[in-house]
Amino acid sequence: MKADELREKFLTFFETKGCVRRPSDVLVPRWDPSVLFTPAGMNQFKDHFLGRCKLEFTRATTCQKCLRTGDIENVGRTPYHHTFFEMLGNFSFGDYFKREAILWAWEFLTDKKWLGLDPEKISATVYLDDDEAAEIWIKEVGLSPDKVTRMGEDENFWPANAPSQGPDGVCGPCSEIYYDTPWGKVEIWNLVFTQYNRVGPPPNNLRPLPSKNIDTGMGLERAAAVLQGVESNFHIDIIRPIVEAAADVCHVKYDPSSDFGRRLRRIADHIRACTFAIHENVTPSPNKQGYVIRRLIRRAVLDGHRMGVREPFFYKLVPVVAEMMKNPYPELQETIPRVQAVIKGEEENFLAVLETGLERIERLFEEMRRNNRGVVSGAEAAELYQTYGFPPELLEALAAERNYAFDWEGYRREMERHGLESGAGQKKEVFYTGPLDSLKKAGLESRFVGYETTEVPDAKIIGLIAAGHLCDAVEEKDHGQPVAVILDKTPFYGEMGGQVGDRGELVADGLRFEVIDTKMESGFPVHYGHLRDGRLALGQVVTARVDAARRQGIRRAHTATHLLHYALQKVLGKHAQQQGSKVDDDILRFDFANPTAVKAEELEEIEAEVNRRVLEAAPVQIAYMPLAEARKTGAMMLFGEKYPDVVRVVSVGEYSKELCGGTHLDHAGQIGLFKIISEESVAAGTRRITALTGWKAYEFVRDTSRVIAEASAALNVPPQEIPTRIQNMLQEIRQLRKQVALGGRSPGVTAEQLWSQGIDVDGVRVIVGEIPAADPDLMRQLIDQLRRRNMPTAVLLAAKHPEEKKVVMVAGLSRELTDRGMDAVKWVRSVAAVVGGGGGGRPDLAQAGGKVPEKLAEALDLAREQAVKMIQA
Question: Could you say which of 159, 368, 381, 447 would form a disulfide bridge with 489 (CB–CB 3.0 to 4.6 Å)?
Fold first, then answer.
């Protein structure tokens, strides 16, 4: 049975049992501070398990993509350990319990309609004291007692060792299901019976929960290995091709039993993890999720290096992962170029320092051997990480190969001393409960009504949090730590989806609370601010008033980001997908996928495209529809973003259609003006545009125009000639510096002297002269100085070099003369013909050369005559 068939069979089976099929949650749950990546299927149902949300269903089933690094050192070494994997699960929130969970698991495993496994090869474990589960296995399923093993809390309790060691909170015994294979017993399913609340240390610390829950997990890869009769998860149909592809790009043969085989399996695992994570916009960095991805990429690069690979190779495997996973995750195909660009960039960075880093590590190990040391110190590890980007886990692995220990505590202390994150991660309580969770558990809700209005006259205070604790009232006018206020309904938008939170005030008779920020936390818009007058109390009714002018600026910027996204894809291509954004009062920051810097002419076209749409004043329309229907309409959605079943679709004319929960304008014309002020790199393969809208865009253009006018006046040139003038001035400066470096040589004549030698012809100063031994740069500088005078000027300067048998001429006309049709190119060419040469250039500045220096005087006479004719014509 193929992995795709197994996945579908599992979900279909539990649908027949009344479970609601839910999509996989995102791999990076940014709203959940307790984890970096989704580690299990139950994570998206935390509020369901804890009774902190209104239950729309009490049974569910999922196939969840997961990422864990706790067993990373075993990846590739054992048949079953992974960083990225898929977890099949079925769940109950106060509905069915042990009996159904066990009987359904047995049915799915053994019924020929489903998996059809041999019942004789199945055994189970239960928790020591769980007589109920043991009885179901033996009396109802029919397993012989010798196939039901009782285990301690370290093996058959979740969380492990919870009764004796904690943490406090929901927990329960579990039952693990094993299958006999030619390679030994394989654990294929874990059924967790969440039935207790742990309160304090033992004894008598497990209190029965009023609502008992079921949380099960079957590793897709492990179950597929059993069904396909292979001894390793890495040999199933969706992973073995990745292993073989890794062997190809590393130019080695895959031998499962060799050291290279272990490295290739690890590379295959890590590319799956990196492909999925970067697809969800996690890029390599020194912190949090980014650190994990950087660590995985660098481990893979090091493995490739150990097999003789000296150039980037890891990124080449991304298309193979996308192909293997295209049935359940077709969206991976859309981001292949971006994911490859990010990985390749990180590979190149690491390869640039890898050789030097490895040499330094070998010297370290040699020094340790000579001094009979057995531990790599934290200071040494920190230095290698900061200097060579060598993750401590890699150093630890290399040290372990030589039987050296690693001082993790010392490393963390050293990194903290330098103000850096170690990346080691912090264990947090999975079911942490805070003040807002208490409100949620009490059934309280806060409704956002800010799409329709910026003021609500009858909002009721349902929660007050001061110093991190719920309270009944706030009376002190504390200007230090902000107080948090939760209302039953609010026009304030809580920071979310890149849009900043609203500011404003809550007022009533004798009361004024200044709202300095609003954030979405645990499903509540939370108003943070300071009490300026009066007293806040639970149950109090207030007028909630948003700063409407600031909100309008935010609306302008937010609608502009949608048009910018559309314009980027039109000008650069469909790969230019949004990676993140920040929308504030008439200023926006927009991150998008692009492998290189955006060219100046492309930026101009992008800006023009947005402003064209602004001038058309296309209407902004809002529609609510099921997620699947929104996908069919072509609405853009961000990878890695979690969307509800019914989504809000924001359309701007016929150009842009995106899923978005933010506040928007009525029509694009209200943006007023869109102005890009910068474009820069923020990560490998990711660029950032910062732009202004509305009043800030107007102020930017006004201030820039003022600066240009002042520069134009100071340089005495029209605005459009400022860049040329500055370039000429810089050239003059460089030439003067060169003269100083050469002992102060000059052309022997000043611009003032040349001006005095000129003649006036009908209001035009004509200057023709020879500058002995001058080069073209010096002549151009003199011409530029002469043209800056407040009089139309025609200049032709020449120099002869008898030893080289050549003549150089430069002619320049001020703008007034070129506007009248005079042309420096024609002028200098006619003169150069006398000395046997020719020239070219622009109407205002041209250069020529000749091979008969002895005729220069004759040529200069002709230059004066020609100038007079041109002026008088």
Answer: 447
Reported as type and span, the H/E element at residue 85 is: strand 84-93
| Residue 235 assigned to a binding site | no
Domain boundary among 700, 724, 752: 700
For 240-294, how does the pLDDT look when each residue is reduced to its tens digit (9 = 90+)? 999 999 999 999 999 999 999 999 999 999 999 999 999 998 989 888 889 899 9
Please list, in sequence order, all residues whose beta carbon lies within 8 angstroms of the beta carbon of residue 17, skipping any fewer than 6 positions away: 59, 90, 100, 104
Residues 41 and 187 in one domain: yes
Q: Residue 744 region, left (φ>0) first, then alpha (ψ -120 to 50), else beta?
A: left
**Residues 516 and 565 placed together within one structural domain of the fold:** no
pTM of the model: 0.73
CB atoms within 10 A of CB 834: 19
- Measuring CA to CA, which residue among 308, 301, 332, 305 is closest to residue 318? 332
801 marked as part of a ligand binding site: no
Domain residues for the domain of 393 are 255-417
Within a domain: 167: yes
Residue pair 289/303 in contact (Cβ under 8 Å)? The answer is no
Domain count, the chain: 5
CA distances from 646 to 48, 626, 661, 704 (A): 19, 4, 11, 45
Residue 664 assigned ligand-binding role: yes
Are 527 and 589 part of one and the same domain? Answer: no
Here the CATH number for the domain that contains residue 858 is: 3.10.310.40
Assess if residue 721 is contained within a domain. Answer: no
Neighbouring residues of 835: CB distance < 8 A, sequence distance ≥ 6: 807, 850, 851, 852, 853, 855, 856, 859
305 among annotated binding-site residues? no
How many CA atoms within 13 Å lie on the side-chain side of 163? Answer: 20
